[in-house]
Amino acid sequence: MKQFFKFVLATIVGVVISAIIIGVIGIGIIAGLVASAGSDKVTEVSPNSVLYMSLKNQITERTPNNPLAGLGFLGLDEDKSIGLNDILADIKKAKTDANIKGIYLDESYMTAGQATTEEIRNALIDFKKSGKFIIAYAEVYTQGFYYLASVADKVYINPKGVFEFHGFSSQTTFLKGALDKLGIEAQIIKVGTFKSAVEPLFLTKMSDANKLQVTSYLGSLYDHFLTGISKSRGINKDSLFTYADNMRIQFPEDAYKLKLVDGLKYKDEILNDLKKRTGTDLKDDLKSVDLNDYAKNKADDGDDKSDDSASKNRIALVYASGDINTGEGQDNTIGSETISKALRKARLDDKVKAVVLRVNSPGGSSLASDVIWREVKLIHETKPIIVSMGDYAASGGYYISCAADSIIAQPNTITGSIGIFAVLPNMQKLFNDKLGVTFDGVKTGKYADLGDVSRPLSPNERLILQNSVNHGYDDFTKAVAEGRKKTQAYINSIGQGRVWTGEQALKNGLVDRLGNIDDAIASAAKKAKIKNYRLVAYPEQKSFFNKLGNGLSAEVKTRMVKSELGENYRVYEQIKGLTQMMRTPQARLPYDLVIK
């Protein structure tokens, strides 16, 4: 027995020592990879080059701080996403880069939201003012990519390719039937006729009010889509509507006959065309630079962009992207503590003369939204603050925006959704009937166990929760009324949880003008009465090593789940999000909007 314990102890010591050695080696490998990745700051651009733009990867607000992207380590090589900030900067830089002769837009299954696409599209339109060319080519044109590509000088498609042009649709996944089978009742407390985020939990189809609002904003988005293509391609908008409505385009040759594309070509023909345009011998390789590599050619880390780096004046660009939650946030989530801290820092810094808050959020916790709103209001009282809206700035996303001096949105931004709701599950049937589990206990007062999911709410408990949600809605509409200089009655009339596009919001007064992030920055500088300034981004992006010890494994896990579930990942996210919705009152956009 003594010998046995000796061997066991030796084994344990060996395992511990091995783990330490492997950990040290692993850290060394990671450090080496990071060092090698970080050292490759500049990509040489040859004369007569083409800027190669393929937008297949996720487009975030800011390029993630991942030095291992593309190096094939821990699955992080798949994270080749690029930030909208770098895409816009690259296009602007290429416009005046003598070595760049034009842009090649390659086949892209774009996952970007419509406002993000609008920003890139407008940047490409501005690029064309230089006289340089843009060529677009794809084997498959989704409607989103075609909207972007339609601004190109020439739009080509593979002769056997696919061209989608059939109008917009939006579908919701309803979970009530599944919850019924499980014996779970979603107890809904909400304010707002149009606040439909909770409908999938207690209905099996869209309510009449929800169908009305979706029809309205979907029609607005589609009209803007057709208008943009009509202007770029010189085709009557009504004709475009007819083509889509009657499914006139089923094959590439249909798109060519109706002048939506300029030709049917194979990839080799496109490459030869680009070689001719750049004066390259057909026997030589085409000189090109990838968008991600081109983004590395900058003097700093990309967070600070300067109109005048020597100026003491600064404009703070605060990024608020993702769901709104309490506490610390990540790159793609809004933590009330993280964002309010960034706003406070900008407010107290005398060098910061104005603030631009970039909001791309469907909302989230009403409490967290209010915490951020307070900091926006305090800035408004001391220096100019302008909001630039991305794909979404709805519900909680609008709450954190409404106290700003002015709000700038894209025509196809999704905003509004001014409303509050709470969800509390009643799992009594699941526990009692499905699992055979029962509960019993004692309490010091009749409301001591309010929120217990093992039983249904009593009428009085439901009234208490409804009063709480009503109070939250009253606070929300008061904040909007104060910020927008409207009456609370008017805000209530356009509130009620109703969703609007940026174009509609301009008409009802929820936004001040239509434009992009550069317009917001220019507006902030004008209000601050400064011409020379340095643009500084907040909050500071977390370093790779910080992520390594804080949530990197979750990032890798998420990527693996997305890879396995594909399009079904959206349903998984919807179900997972129920747990968050059941914790605190929510100011959140109606479900996960997917427009096809």
UniProtKB/TrEMBL annotation:
One Gene Ontology term, aspect cellular component: membrane
Domain of life: Bacteria
One Pfam family matching this protein: Peptidase_S49
Gene source species: Mucilaginibacter oryzae
The keyword Protease belongs to this UniProt entry's keyword annotation: yes
Positions annotated as active site in the UniProt record: K195 (proton donor/acceptor), S395 (nucleophile)
Subcellular locations according to the entry: Membrane
Domain Peptidase S49: residue ranges: 127-278, 380-531
CDD domains documented for this protein: S49_SppA_67K_type, S49_Sppa_N_C
Protein's GO biological process: signal peptide processing
MF annotations from Gene Ontology: serine-type peptidase activity
SUPFAM superfamilies hit by this protein: ClpP/crotonase (SSF52096)
Signal peptide per UniProt: none
InterPro entries: ClpP/crotonase-like_dom_sf (IPR029045), Pept_S49_pIV (IPR004634), Pept_S49_SppA (IPR004635), Peptidase_S49 (IPR002142), S49_SppA_67K_type_N (IPR047217), S49_SppA_C (IPR047272)
Keywords: Hydrolase, Membrane, Protease, Serine protease, Transmembrane, Transmembrane helix
Family: Belongs to the peptidase S49 family.
Transmembrane annotation, as ranges: 7-34
Record protein name field: Protease-4
NCBIfam families referenced in this protein's UniProt entry, alphabetically: SppA_67K, SppA_dom
